[in-house]
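Example 9 (inverse folding). The structure is encoded as follows.
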């Protein structure tokens, strides 16, 4: 009922701008009317029930049980991954990436001391390594740390007024006597910004793509009995390594795509990575802009939460279900709202909202028994953030993180970043309305968009292990 009260409070606040945004979103007037009528009907039913003429308490318990059953089945059949299949996929990805990084590092030592090279290791990041990946273990993200010439040190700073909120630029500091000798490196990997040379994310990314492509031949030969590998690269995007296991090497036979992200190490497990090209750069020098990657700090926080929360905690399950509902709801939306829906409710935004909510109350309340209640709390928290147009990045400038999760000084002293600052108010209001509508109609949306027409193909079960249905 808390969701119904929140929805009723939100209706009637819209104006002509909201109607135009709804029409542009493709959800249409009939959908908005239908959602409003649904919410009104629920409120009337609640009032009638309070007066004694509505459904009895047993009926409410039945409805709550039916909702939970629909969400549980949705998670088990469409979202939850087999630990065995995911473990095989991650192990195979690790072996192949290790071979490629080893070859790329060896070749990178040849040009000389004034060139980029690979550090020789890689960092596994993303949902596959944080236990909340959904649907299929076929996509992975890997950070590949680079090494600057030994006489150069990165000097990152916030790109105030030069790019979007949360962007950074990276100056370079040369040791005494090396300023002139490092000029060839600056000419190949830097751009001029405000009269100073700054490391260019675009130039580094292009070098990284070409460097990996040159090393692929040797790796392909060494791996020919295990798998077939290829590399694809789009301008402005990190290269993607495609892995197709041979028939008898990986029993799960999953074709995998691994995004290899070049990263500039800053120390303390912090990295600079190129901003996505489709983001709101708003800058005259987008190639000079970087994003800050704190994935290792996220993994540390998740590890701490796992230790503190009950063994049967449902916080990651709530995140998986909310991501699944977001993806299903996208099928009923039209452009341009469909793209904005995915950008506003990105996985990082959902994860940030979960982190913030988890630290607001006792972790015992996230026991599996309270799955529906906690999921509803997460939806309502997100709705409020969208209406207020504020959701602060959890790590940048956050002073309320538990002391057990040690943060680098650079993160503590960074300026706070609002993750919703790039979106206008009417768009965020419409997303908030659709989010609440999606939660209210979750069982119906799951039934409507769970046909094979909308679902990605599920990988075949492993033939060497018997797994229960739904894995």
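The amino acid assigned to each position is listed next.
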């Amino acid at each position: 009922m808390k969701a119904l009260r929140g929805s009723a409070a939100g209706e009637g606040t819209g104006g002509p701008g909201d109607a135009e945004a709804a029409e542009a979103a493709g959800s249409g007037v009939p959908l908005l009317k239908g959602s409003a009528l649904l919410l009104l009907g629920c409120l009337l039913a609640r009032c009638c029930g309070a007066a004694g003429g509505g459904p009895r308490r047993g009926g409410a318990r039945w409805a709550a049980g039916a909702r939970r059953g629909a969400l549980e089945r949705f998670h088990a059949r469409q979202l939850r991954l087999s630990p065995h299949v995911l473990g095989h996929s991650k192990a195979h990805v690790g072996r192949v990436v290790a071979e490629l990084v080893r070859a790329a590092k060896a070749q990178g030592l040849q040009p000389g001391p004034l060139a980029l090279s690979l550090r020789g290791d890689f960092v596994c990041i993303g949902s596959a390594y944080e236990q909340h990946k959904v649907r299929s273990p076929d996509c992975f993200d890997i950070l590949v740390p680079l090494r600057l010439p030994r006489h150069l040190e990165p000097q990152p700073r916030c790109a105030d007024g030069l790019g979007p909120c949360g962007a950074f630029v990276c100056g370079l500091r040369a040791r005494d006597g090396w300023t002139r000798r490092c000029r060839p490196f600056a000419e190949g990997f830097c751009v001029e910004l405000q009269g100073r040379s700054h490391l260019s994310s675009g130039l580094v990314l292009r070098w990284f793509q070409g460097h990996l492509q040159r090393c692929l031949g040797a790796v392909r030969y060494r791996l020919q009995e295990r798998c077939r590998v290829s590399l694809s690269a789009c301008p402005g995007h990190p290269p993607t390594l495609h892995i197709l296991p041979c028939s008898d090497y990986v029993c799960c036979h999953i074709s995998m795509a691994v995004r290899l992200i070049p990263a500039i190490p800053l120390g303390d497990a912090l990295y600079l990575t190129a901003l996505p090209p489709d983001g709101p750069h708003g800058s005259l020098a987008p190639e000079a802009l970087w994003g800050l990657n704190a994935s290792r700090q996220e993994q540390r926080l998740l590890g701490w939460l796992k230790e503190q929360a009950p063994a049967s905690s449902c916080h990651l399950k709530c995140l998986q279900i909310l991501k699944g509902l977001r993806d299903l709801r996208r099928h009923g939306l039209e452009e341009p709202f469909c793209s904005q829906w995915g950008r506003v409710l990105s996985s990082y935004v959902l994860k940030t909202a979960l982190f913030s909510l988890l630290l607001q109350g006792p972790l015992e309340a996230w026991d599996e028994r309270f799955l529906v209640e906690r999921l509803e709390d997460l939806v309502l928290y997100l709705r409020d953030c969208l209406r207020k147009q504020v959701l602060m990045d959890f790590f940048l400038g956050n002073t309320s993180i538990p002391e057990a999760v040690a943060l680098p000084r650079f993160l503590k002293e960074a300026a706070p970043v609002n993750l919703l600052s790039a979106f206008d108010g009417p768009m965020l209001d419409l997303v908030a309305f659709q989010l609440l509508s999606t939660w209210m109609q979750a069982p119906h949306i799951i039934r409507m968009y769970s046909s094979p027409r909308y679902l990605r193909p599920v990988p075949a079960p492993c033939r060497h292990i018997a797994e229960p249905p739904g894995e």
